[in-house]
């Protein structure tokens, strides 16, 4: 909200010595965020000049310029001769008073003015237009003071005459404080910050009762059970002269407030809106057909708004209509049919209060934000419409020569000030400052509340312009804000012991840190993908499974939420390979979205943002959200070790991916087993299924590892072999439970032995390994598969698996006999369970 200081000073005592920075500091002290200081960015000499004569001179380029002699009073030449100025505009006559920028002046841009030769003359200055002075965007020729109703002697300072010496401060107004989107609101806040005297502009007018104009509210489809309009006041002004110019002081103030001047009648409504905070609309009464009806739109209705767009209306849109149909989107923008224009002589002034949610939805639905909707959706003072309408009437009478008529209307319910219980001691306990009871009551009274002392505290009735004060917490915030947030002590909370992370958070962090330490780079990606990618990577067989489709996707080609992390890693790898980075080791930890078959997600009705949902609504919303487990996935391509003298490059294959899987297992605190498997996107024979054996001995599948099919890698524009792995990290960590493994360094030597067992070729090595571990007992420290042999000496349909076993006792040096006994115990269990035999 931009606040011109001259306007602010009309309603609050701002010291003449106060700088814009001082004013901003005052606003900051009561909770507003400063943005910038805004001015017209021009400097003199810029003066009034009178055109004494001019000669029209056609040019070879088809343009006609005027060689003007301009009287600028004390700024004329040494002997009083007028200034010679070249001007390309043709909208002025001899005797007109204009604005002249003399050499040394700087106009907005910045555009410095100097005497320069052009079109065969030395132009000793420039006759300025409104746009060149920063008074608007229109460029309809040079600015003629007679059009502004101004008479001034040549040489008069035009900067002060036009109000261009004013400056505005810009503050950020939060959505809950709509009352501050006005000079009225911010002048009151400045008074709170400094103690300066405040004069309410709404009390400076005396509303006149009017009646006779037919207005009907027919809201058959209220939002949230509330009618779309709470107050609707109309007044009529007759005999206005729409051709009169807007006074320069009003143009300057509107420009500083960020609103361009359009015409006198429209400028008056905008001026009153900025001043009081209540949006006001003016209709050409001669274009209205009958009275006004406020109603919801019918399906298929259309309306041409003031911006020239024909809009198809929604059944929730609140309309202003007459007998001809819609004439305005209530609280958002008026219609072109009843727009005030050059021929307007009689004006119907409307000041209303519309429902915040209804206006916000309409503005967003039609992508039509406006200064009016910005205020209505934040809440307008329900007692303001009579004063706002009267302010517009007074200005139209004063500036447009109109006459106030008795015709009008006033609809609306009586405003009742709600009362809030504020217990004694609550503010002190919440804010942490020892406020006295008198200071609390004084502060709340200062902001306009009615404060009544009770046996256990106060009953507080907020003022009509503060709809944000709804409970004891917001009242406590106001006490802290007005008394000074600098009084609130800064006390750091005592941190709990440990890192403050949950076991699951700690586990995820260990996994990510472990992969990063192993040389992988974490590459988070957007969770958006295609349905085809979800089917390919989100299921083992490539079958179609349900996916969550976004109603408003960022990318129309990827409207689904991912079922797997692999598509994102493939996109990241593609971008890197395209830029020359061919040796990649990537990983991502993130959520995937896996809706259950047969469950209809995303259909729950979203409640309005201004209403707190009940427990049943929250449960329904939770049920409409698909499961979102966290996964960890990795991708390898290229080489893990580059080519060096005497050594070939080491390609990144499935062996490296399995090592990374073991890193994840170690970080999570589980043991992961690998068995041969199949997946639609992975190479047959080079795909492994990852499982974790829980405390109960049950094996749970947690993921997969393998090489992508060449066709899948080609579709991703990735050369060579690409290895991927993906695990359900939530399941992995849940299987780890609260187990913490602490390994100590033993001082006793280990005993190592190998064993080669012949088993059926279809038996997974992990099953045989599990039997060896279980049979060998506690002395077995580690077991590692070192060879898989199939050939001469091994029966057809069988294979020989060789394991390296390491034994160690915690309290003694093992003998060879003890190690052999433990090994044979493991072989015996493997033989009985899987028919394994020692290879001779």
Instruction: Note the beta-strand portion.
Output: 25-35%
Q: Output the number of helix runs.
A: 22
Helix content: 25-40%
Rg, rounded, reads 40 Å
| Class derived from helix and strand content | alpha+beta
What is the terminal separation in angstroms? 90 Å
Uncertain residue ranges: none
CATH class of the largest domain: Alpha Beta
Major sheet characteristics: 7 strands, mixed
Name the CATH superfamily classification of the largest domain.
Answer: Bira Bifunctional Protein, Domain 2
Global morphology: elongated
Task: Determine the CATH topology of the largest domain.
Answer: BirA Bifunctional Protein, domain 2
Strand order of the largest sheet: 28-31-32-38-37-36-35
Counted up, domains total 6
CATH architecture of the largest domain: 2-Layer Sandwich
Number of strands: 42
Instruction: Compute the average pLDDT.
Output: 90
Family: Belongs to the phenylalanyl-tRNA synthetase beta subunit family. Type 1 subfamily.
Keywords: Aminoacyl-tRNA synthetase, ATP-binding, Cytoplasm, Ligase, Magnesium, Metal-binding, Nucleotide-binding, Protein biosynthesis, RNA-binding, tRNA-binding
Catalytic activity: tRNA(Phe) + L-phenylalanine + ATP = L-phenylalanyl-tRNA(Phe) + AMP + diphosphate + H(+)
Enzyme class: ligase
């Amino acid at each position: 909200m931009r606040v011109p200081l001259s306007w602010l000073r009309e309603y609050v005592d701002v010291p003449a010595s106060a700088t814009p920075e001082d004013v901003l500091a005052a606003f900051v002290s009561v909770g507003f965020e400063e943005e910038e200081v805004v001015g017209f960015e021009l400097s003199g000499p810029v003066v009034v000049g009178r055109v004494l004569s001019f000669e029209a001179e056609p040019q070879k380029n088809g343009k006609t310029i005027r060689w003007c002699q301009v009287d600028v009073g004390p700024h004329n030449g040494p002997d009083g001769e007028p200034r010679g100025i070249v001007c390309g505009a043709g909208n002025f006559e001899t005797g007109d008073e204009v604005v002249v920028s003399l050499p040394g002046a700087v106009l907005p841009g910045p555009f410095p003015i100097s005497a320069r030769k052009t079109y065969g003359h030395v132009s000793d200055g420039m006759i300025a237009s409104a746009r060149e002075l920063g008074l608007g965007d229109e460029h309809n020729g040079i600015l003629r003071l007679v059009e502004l109703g101004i008479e001034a002697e040549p040489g008069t300072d035009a900067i002060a005459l036009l109000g261009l010496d004013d400056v505005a401060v810009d503050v950020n107004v939060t959505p809950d404080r709509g009352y501050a989107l006005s000079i009225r609101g911010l002048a009151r806040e400045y008074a709170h910050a400094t103690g300066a005297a405040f004069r309410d502009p709404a009390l400076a007018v005396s509303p006149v009762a009017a009646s006779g104009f037919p207005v009907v509210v027919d809201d058959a489809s209220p939002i949230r059970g509330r009618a779309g309009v709470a107050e609707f006041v109309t007044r009529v002004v007759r005999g206005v002269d729409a051709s009169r110019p807007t006074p320069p002081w009003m143009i300057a103030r509107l420009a500083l407030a960020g609103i361009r001047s359009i015409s006198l009648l429209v400028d008056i409504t905008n001026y009153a809106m900025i001043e009081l905070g209540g949006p006001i609309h003016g209709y050409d009464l001669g274009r209205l057909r009958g009275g006004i009806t406020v109603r919801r739109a019918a399906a298929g209705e259309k309306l041409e708004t003031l911006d020239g767009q024909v809009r198809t209306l929604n059944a929730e849109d609140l309309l202003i209509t007459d007998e001809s149909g819609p004439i305005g989107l209530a609280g958002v923008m008026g219609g072109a049919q009843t727009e005030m224009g050059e021929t307007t002589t009689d004006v119907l002034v409307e000041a209303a209060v519309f429902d915040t949610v209804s206006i916000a939805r309409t503005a967003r639905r039609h992508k039509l934000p406006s200064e009016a909707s910005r205020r209505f959706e934040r809440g307008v003072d329900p007692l303001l419409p009579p004063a706002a309408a009267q302010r517009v009437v007074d200005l139209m009478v004063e500036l447009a020569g109109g006459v106030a008529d008795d015709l009008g209307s006033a609809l609306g319910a009586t405003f009742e000030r709600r009362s809030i219980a504020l217990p004694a001691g609550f503010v002190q306990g919440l804010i942490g400052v020892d406020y006295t009871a008198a200071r609390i009551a004084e502060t709340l009274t200062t902001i306009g509340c009615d404060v009544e002392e009770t046996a256990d505290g106060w009953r507080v009735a907020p003022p009509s312009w503060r709809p944000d004060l709804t409970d004891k917490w917001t009242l406590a915030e106001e006490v802290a804000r007005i008394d000074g947030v600098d009084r609130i002590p800064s006390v750091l909370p005592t941190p709990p012991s440990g890192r403050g992370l949950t076991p699951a958070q700690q586990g995820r962090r260990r996994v990510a840190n472990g992969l990063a330490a192993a040389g992988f780079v974490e590459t988070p990606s957007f969770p958006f993908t295609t349905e085809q990618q979800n089917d390919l990577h989100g299921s083992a067989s490539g079958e179609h499974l349900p996916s969550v489709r976004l109603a408003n996707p960022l990318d129309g080609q990827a409207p689904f939420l991912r079922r797997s992390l692999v598509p994102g890693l493939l996109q990241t790898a593609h971008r890197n390979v395209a830029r020359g980075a061919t040796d990649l080791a990537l990983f991502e930890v993130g959520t995937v979205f896996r809706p259950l078959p047969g469950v209809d997600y995303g259909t729950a009705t979203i409640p309005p943002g201004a209403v707190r949902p009940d427990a049943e609504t929250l449960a329904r919303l939770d049920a409409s959200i698909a499961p979102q487990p966290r996964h960890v996935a990795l991708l390898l391509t290229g080489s893990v070790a580059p080519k060096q003298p005497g050594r070939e490059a080491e390609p990144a294959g499935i062996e490296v991916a399995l090592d990374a899987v073991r890193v994840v297992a170690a970080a999570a605190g589980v043991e992961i087993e690998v068995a041969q498997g199949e997946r639609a996107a992975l190479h047959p024979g080079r795909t492994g299924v990852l499982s974790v054996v829980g405390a109960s001995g049950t094996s749970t599948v947690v993921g997969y590892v393998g090489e992508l099919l060449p066709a899948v890698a080609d579709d991703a524009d990735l050369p060579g072999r690409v290895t991927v792995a993906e695990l359900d990290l939530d399941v992995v960590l849940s299987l780890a439970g609260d187990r913490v493994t602490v390994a100590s360094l033993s001082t006793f030597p280990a005993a190592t032995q190998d064993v080669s067992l012949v088993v059926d070729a279809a038996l997974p090595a992990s099953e045989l390994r599990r039997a060896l571990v279980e049979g060998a007992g506690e002395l077995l420290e580690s077991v590692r598969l070192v060879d898989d042999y199939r050939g001469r000496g091994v029966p057809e349909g069988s294979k020989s698996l060789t394991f390296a076993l390491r034994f160690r006792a915690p309290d003694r040096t093992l003998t060879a006999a003890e190690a052999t006994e433990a090994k044979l115990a493991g072989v015996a269990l493997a033989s009985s369970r899987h028919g394994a035999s020692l290879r001779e």
